[in-house]
Amino acid sequence: MQEKDILEKIRDPSSKQFGFSLLVRHYQKPMYAVVRRMVIDHDDADDVLQEVFLKVWKGIDNFREDARLFTWVYRIASNECLQFLAKKKRRFFLPIHDISSELFAKAEQSAGLSGSEIELKLQKAILKLPDKQRLVFNMRYYDELKFEEIASITGTSVGALKASYHLAAKKIEEYVTAG
Q1: Where would I find the RNA polymerase sigma factor 70 region 4 type domain in this sequence (predicted)?
Q2: Is pTM beyond 0.70 here?
Q3: Residue 32 CA from chain centroid, whole number
Q4: Strand, coil or helix: what is 66?
């Protein structure tokens, strides 16, 4: 189903709930992947995803179609991930390296992220990145989004995103090739 068809159903009061259900079905899997790569834990990802769709429901009437629906939902998911991670750090009064250690442990235990040794090393390298840099790296590397799309989602300039991605890739390469 096309975005415009989903929006048409949502904008019609008689089919709003059905349209929203279509939206959730259409974006649930890709947004789960986005969220899971950021928060690692399945239960946390489910909680964050629920918040994402709650915010989408509350804000859909204000969606102006300045960007694609996908971009708008992705932006909400990205912001929710960053807020979740920030709350987690504040709640436990943990420095960044302690949160990273927790995420490393979850990555090693996680069936969804299991794989070869090099995949696990890549995941650990990505988890060492600051949250926003990790988000940009994931968008470009895993989701294969163009820098223009990432800029639209994050509200960051293309030049800054390219620099951030390059720096992230360099850090990851250094981590993976070290010892």
Answers
A1: 121-172
A2: yes
A3: 8
A4: coil
